[in-house]
Amino acid sequence: MQVDYEKMYLLRIINAAMNEQQFFAITNHTLTVVAQDASYVQRFTSDYILISPGQTMDVLVSANQNVGQYYMATRPFSDASAMPPDNITTGIFQYTNSDGGLNASLITLPARDDTNATNSFISRIRNTNVTQNPPLNVPTGIDRRVFITIATNTVPCNTSQCLLPNRFVASLNNVSFVFPRIDILQAYYNSTGGVFTEDFPLNPPVFYDFTGNLTGFNTRAELGTRAVVLNYGEAVEIVLQATQLGGGGSHPIHLHGFSFYRVGSGSGNFNNETDPSTYNLVDPPLINTIHVPGKGWAALRFFANNPGVWYMHCHFERHSSWGMDTVFIVRNGTTTETSIRPPPSTMPRCPG
After folding, report:
1. Where is the Plastocyanin-like domain (predicted)?
2. Which helix (H) or strand (E) holds 274?
3. What fold is seen in the domain 144-338?
4. What is the full DSSP assignment across 40-102?
């Protein structure tokens, strides 16, 4: 990247990796975070950022060091039992008229399993639109609460397809999502039966020590194409609870169709009696991908004001392909403007 001395640059960063969150930094340069997921945040400076797959972050960097060449570097973060390769990928932050040769050694990034660095960075992200007009519209009176556990599991596998009697799947509330042959939006709009059911569980089927030692615990999951149905305009709270099933670890959970407020997160098992008192309802960041810490939980809120069929999934490709997904259906409101638009007349029809 070519830069001019004493100029400031806006870096629009996206994590295009498939399966890992990433630390990113530039040697000898401070990063100023100004936006995440296309929403402004209270600007703060940091030596590094942590960004999830599919997530975007806007960062200012001032070219105020000695003219030369400096490393830009990224490395994966994971707190799961199966660690990714500790690869550090680099680029060059190069000043105009530099003589060549690097002016500094490779920056020291947080360790690939540094949960303190991860949680510290995420905790600093707060919404900037507190006193501006329009003000934040954080839901307070909640109409629909959904508590979702996140896990990797196993299901029986035919010996003609697998070397072992079981294969890996992933689940939300112990339901491993099965992708239908007909998309759910068309099936819902056309009232086509047999494609999905509207009975995704709003709570896990069994409560246990989600973040404890689960050695020997039954890891079987159910297979299904099950959706959550919301009424238009409902204030929704979703608590996402990481578990230690299948090795645990953090998860970046993405919801299509909405930006939502990250109102809280914590370690251990979510306590519905005490943890809501720790929520940030003053300046929570408005995002579309939320970091659920390993051995912990995260809470989000939004208004169901976008009618349609909306996919929620882990942004680790392997987990999404294994079934760590579900669908939220928002019913129509009372007007044309609050109802699903009809498909275009030129849209190809599904065969059969």
Report:
1. 2-97, 200-332
2. none
3. Immunoglobulin-like (2.60.40)
4. EEEEEEES-EEE-BT-EEEEEEE--S-SSEEEEEEEEE--SSSPPP---EEEEEEETT--SSB
Structure confidence at residue 66 as a pLDDT band (50, 70, 90): very high
Indicate the average pLDDT of the chain: 93
Contact 5, 42 (CB under 8 A): no
Q: Which residue intervals of the chain bear CATH 2.60.40.420?
A: 2-123, 144-338
Token duo for residue 29 = 């340069």
What are the Cα distances from residue 255, in Å, to 48, 84, 130, 184, 290? 26, 25, 24, 16, 9
The radius of gyration computed from the CA coordinates of the chain, to the nearest angstrom, equals 22
Assess whether pLDDT exceeds 80 at residue 84: no
Using alpha carbons, list the distances in angstroms from residue 199 to 96, 163, 228, 303, 305.
Answer: 60, 33, 7, 21, 21
Alpha carbon distance 66, 102 (integer Å):
11
Using a cut of 0.70, tell me whether the model's pTM lies above it. Answer: yes
Asked whether the beta carbons of 11 and 51 are under 8 A apart, the reply is no
Confidence (pLDDT) at 133: 60
Element (H, E) at 221: none
ω before 343 within 30° of 0 (cis)? no
Q: What digits encode the pLDDT tens for the residues 103-152?
A: 777 888 999 999 999 999 999 999 997 766 667 899 999 999 999 999 99
Q: Which CATH class is domain 2-123?
A: mainly beta
DSSP H or E stretch at residue 137: none
**Minimal CA–CA distance to 324: which of 270, 267, 243, 215?**
243
Q: Three-state SS for 206?
A: coil
